[in-house]
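Supplementary Data S3. Sequence and structure tokens for construct A.
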Amino acid sequence: MKNRGLQDPIEPEIWVPYTVTGSAFRGILVRTAKEPLTMLNAVEHEIWATDANVAVTLAGTMEGYIRQFSYAGPRFGFLLMTISARLDWC
């Protein structure tokens, strides 16, 4: 699986249980039959039922995550090229 971005090569990775380290970024993926964002409250409720001290952040859809983090760099570069081309044309 791609672990560093869609364009980057795959790098070795190990999984360490949260109970062992307790630090670093943690995430879960939830497959839903319904619209994912409508299930957010139910997922948060289940997380907090397990551990009330967990902070839920960056909640959203997989498509939104990929769009935000994997394509943001190339999209920004394309935007800069477009702006530059329009300024040169004027």
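Construct B, processed identically:
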Amino acid sequence: MSKISKKKKLEPKASPSKVRKARLLVVDDEADFTKLIQTILVQKGYVVDTATSATQAIALQRKNAYDLALVDLRMPEMTGLELLQYLKARDKAIFVILMTAYGSFSVGIEALRNGAADYVAKPFKNKVLIEKVAEALSRRHQYLEEQHSIRHSSVDEL
């Protein structure tokens, strides 16, 4: 076996430096809470920006493309549901998880009806947050692959 073929066998399919890390936006009017979530998610390898108001979140979304946003349901300027609708109007591919201290089944149903990928009741365990984020990002990846397939099959039909 030549040295070249040995090298090929040892090389990973995608080097970690070339894999794009998911970019997340955390929006909550409690700055300490956003920093806590940011710390938890950065430790899991995500790139995380924070905002303490809907205005700040909107400004950040105008500058950056986010894979997922974690949005508090109750904020002073606008509700989490209103911000969810704004974020999705600007980027149909963004997935949003609503966070609420007023967790109830009806709140969850309302969030899902309005386009949220999921919701989580505060206070939550770090493990629950990490699992919900990973699941939402996995579903987003599937969604993007489906959209890509649809676009290519439409082009092929022309």
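The radius of gyration is 19 Å. The chain has a mean pLDDT of 85.
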